[in-house]
Amino acid sequence: MKPARWPRSDALSERLLWIDPASGAFGDATVEALTKLPRRGDLLVVNDAATLPASLVGATAEGTPLELRLVAREGDDDRVWRCVVFGAGDWRTKTELRAAPPPLPAGTQLRLGADLSASVVERLAPRLVTVRFDMSGDRLWSAIYRAGRPVQYSYLDGPLELFHVQTSYASRPWSVEMPSAGRPLKWSVLLGLRARGVGLARVTHAAGLSSTGDATLDASLPWPERYDIPEETVDAVSATRRSGGRVIAVGTSVVRALEGAARENRGELVAGAGRTNLVLGPGFVPRIVSGIFTGIHEATATHFALLQAFVGRPLLERAYAHAESVGYLGHELGDSCLILDGVAASYPTSR
Amino acid sequence: MNIEGAAVVVTGGSEGLGASLARELASRKARVVVVARREEALRRLVDEIREAGGEAHALAADVGDKLATHAIAGAAAALVGSVDLLVHNASTLGPVPLRALLDTECEDLARVLEVNVLGPFRLSKAIVGGMVLRDRGLVVHVSSDAATSAYAGWGAYGVSKAALDHLARIWAAELEGTHVRFLSVDPGEMDTRMHADALPDADPRTLARPAEVASRLADVIARSAEVASGSRLELSHEAAR
Q1: Which sequence spans correspond to the domains of chain B?
Q2: Domain range spanning residue A336?
Q3: Which among A77, A179, B19, B132 is most buried, taking Cβ atoms within 10 Å?
Q4: pTM for this structure?
């Protein structure tokens, strides 16, 4: 799948591949048509986490250059973060080809911008450390937003600004990479869905890094991620399921939050904050989510494994082969895909 | 709205009405993020609020700077959680002494619109989407009688405030049916640096104290659910200049 290399000006005209696992049909639409695809009584659940400027470029006290990528806050102390580290170079180099970072024993001082500094607390792996920033609260957050840039991708035409990587409903900055499935969802679509009787609910889920550049670390992704599910969402999910509606997750982060929370509570969705290590893959059976609206990525085993909870591999492969042949664009800024039983009935031009 | 525990962002908060409103809301147990360009004045304010037992955080940023938008929205939500109340108080008169339109540089008008209209628009855009998703929130536009009366010499500022009033009305119209609300509030003439810059000969004894106005504004915010979204309220009915 060719990547979309820069944000397109009209998200509503981006392509939408719909797949109906129940009938085995798939077809082409646009994001604008998403307002017509779910039914009255369905519920769309989005991840409202804003995207952090998680890439911090700096150097050790000796002047050795490095890039720190925030992974997750450790516990409640906003100063202590787990981070992936790269050596010299920048995002134009693929992560797996990035230079190794300097050795970073505990106590190494890091300067990450005019007013942002930290020290290494623990080296967990050659490219994975825990650091403690030298300040907290408003001074820390001001400095992170001054020094940080969004995590970039090597296929991009140029560096993305922070406004490029926010969804139109972003709130608390918990994600270190954009929860990109929601990127094309403009308010005309969301309010259009609401006007047609489709519910809208939210979780906050700290979407993690997509790649560390280290094969061993990459194999262990995704790492545990924190989430917060409000009471209103639990109520909306129960009401939807009771009345025979379908819960549609926007992105795999929403699936992880809802299904992870349910798994922690013997299958029952419970409100509150938590951390999940749920891995979506073949054999995983969703208990809460009926369908998914998500981005199109490379047709790899890993990406397919995420989607196989919702659609069988042969249909997925046929649909993706079609999408590739008609020029769909993939990755974080790419086209979208809706996998939902019965969607063919809403969209008559099935193949 | 319930001010106690609310996550609040006040722009232009280092002095004048903004600083007084930050103190007032913090004293009513809101969690307040104060935004202004001048970090030192912000720090003093935040320290003072904390010493009085309130919660306040300082973000030094220029609301007229496009790239500051998501930094303000993101850092604020990191510090106090999803924003419940956004007060667009920051504004600029443009060059002083005030001057007639014929003597106003185009660039000066553009800068005034950038700070007084585009800035609030951008920050609302970054914060209001989350409010609509949660189906609650209040955005207050601090206006002026210069928005409704055509005072000679107040061109750039008056135009910007008229636009800001209308911006609130259009937001309200588009979000009708949600519980996200917009209000424009004319605080009346106050004894502030901005007022002295605009009208250096005014007698401060004839002007309202920012702290008193802030207290009335906080009362309006507390009972904002009773007011139609998009409304324009005058906090004082005192005679204009």
Answers
A1: 7-234
A2: 2-51+159-346
A3: A179
A4: 0.96
Strand partners, B139: B86, B182
Find the closest chain A residue to B66 by CA distance. A163
- Pairing outcome for strands A247-250 and A199-205: unpaired
pLDDT digits (tens, 9 = 90+) for B124-147: 999 999 999 999 999 999 999 999
pLDDT at A67 over 50: yes
A29 contacts: CB under 8 Å, gap ≥ 6: A15, A16, A17, A18, A37, A347
- Among A147, A179, A214, the domain-final residue is A147
Boundary residue ending a domain (A82, A114, A147): A147
Residue A41 maps to a domain: yes
Q: What are phi and psi of B150, to 5 degrees?
A: -90, 90
Class of domain B7-234: alpha beta
- According to DSSP, the residues that pair with B11 across neighbouring strands are B35
A45 neighbourhood in chain B, CB within 8 Å: none
- Does residue A62 sit within a domain? yes
User: Quick one: pLDDT at residue A348?
Assistant: 59
Cα separation, A99 vs B191, in Å, equals 59
Q: Which of B14, B124, B143, B224 is catalytic?
A: B143
The answer to whether position A152 is within a domain reads no
Render pLDDT for B30-54 as a digit per residue (tens, 0 to 9).
999 999 999 999 999 999 999 999 9
The CATH number for A317's domain is 3.40.1780.10
Selected residue of A141, A189, A200, A254 to mutate for chain B interface (largest B Cβ count, 10 A): A141
* pLDDT tens per residue across span A244-283: 999 999 999 999 999 999 999 999 999 999 999 998 887 8
Task: Give me the total of CB pairs closer than 8 Å, taking one residue from chain A and one from chain B.
Answer: 78
A145 to chain B: which residues are within 8 Å by CB?
Answer: 71, 74-75
Q: Which residues contact A265 (CB under 8 A, 6 or more apart)?
A: none
Residue A138 has its nearest CB partner, among B69, B74, B79, at: B79
Instruction: Count other C-beta atoms under 10 Å from residue B102's C-beta.
Output: 6
Q: How far off is chain A from B97, nearest CA to CA, in Å?
A: 34
B39 to chain A, closest Cα gap in Å = 11
